[in-house]
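Researcher: Go.
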Amino acid sequence: MEHPVSQPTLPRSRVPSRRLPWLWGPAFVAAIAYVDPGNVAANLTAGAQYGYLLVWVLVAANAAAVLVQYLSAKAGLVTGRSLPELLGGRLRRGPRLAYWAQAELVAAATDLAEVLGGAIALQILFGLPLVVGGLIVGGVSMLLLAIQNRRGQRPFEFVVMGLLLVITIGFMAGLFVSDVSWAEAAGGLVPRFEGSHSVLLAAGMLGATVMPHAIYVHSALARDRHGSVAGTQLTGLLRATRWEVVASMLVAGAVNIGMLLLAASSLPGVAGTDSIEGAHAAIAATLGPAIGVLFGVGLLASGLASTSVGCYAGATIMAGLLQVRIPLLARRLITLVPAMAILAVGADPTWSLVLSQVLLSIGIPFALAPLVKLTGDRAIMGEHANSGRLQVAAWTVVALIVALNLALIGLQLAGAA
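Model: Structure:
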């Protein structure tokens, strides 16, 4: 029989609700998942190939992300349990193992994107081989996780939020010197596609924005950060969380849309922009080497921060569904293997990133549908259960995501035939 391995318990802090900004942190850590290297690959590819066509996908996905991340945080704060723990306590062994398998597959796809992106950044900045870059990204992410293990969650939040600032500057800098057509960008708010490949990219952009592992992990981050609260303190905490989620998603949304606008204005028709390396070279040639360096630094910060958060998410999934805990650093070593294998066999890293995001898109309903059901259950959430209108909005998001995934699968099967 497998016995759980002990893992350091993160300190839980309780801050008076009147000091709302000090309560912020978990949503900004979760927001790292929305600006990871998979986003870079999907957004740059979409902008370079289709111009402003898919702006609406990012706007809609970011609006959905605000709702999803708030529900996740609310579940953790109200129940004192993460989403995987809530599910693990309600599923029989067979369904629980099957659910864990798909959740771990999603976590592996996430980690693949993050390590690949960091390795590409190190190659762009320093000319390092991708395999060496992947090892460095894995090593640095272990240092970030060591901060969490030894110093607690708050210092880890500060480090990750600092990296989020670097990411924002790195990816947004080029936007201020590019010739964006704001009229065409406004036209991109009209929902439409141009062929099956644009649907594939849209699914990748959606998967990179509303990420399943972020749905799982935010409930744990909020719970671990604030501990058990009730009454008026819980009401104030939920109010602060709503504002935090909106602020963090505005930052992430602005970065994502900025990347697409940058590619649409500076990269269309430029040869080689079907890869992140080619897009970086085109950005540096078009907008100057300084912008190219900032882009590379932003990509590196994205890979380092997101892979640490992804590892936290994987540990949350395993602990909640299997009641098995292994040290985060050990898990980091295990989950590094698939990404290193992809780098070692020489697979196209950018296309691997895009495909990983499509896999994430397919995994969204498996995380989102249980979240909506549980947070709408008064037996679980009490007076904080979703209102009727909120529940309708949440199920509408689930239905639209499922519809996009079904359309993607249908188009791919038709193309194969």
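Model: Residues 1-18 have pLDDT under 50 and may be disordered.
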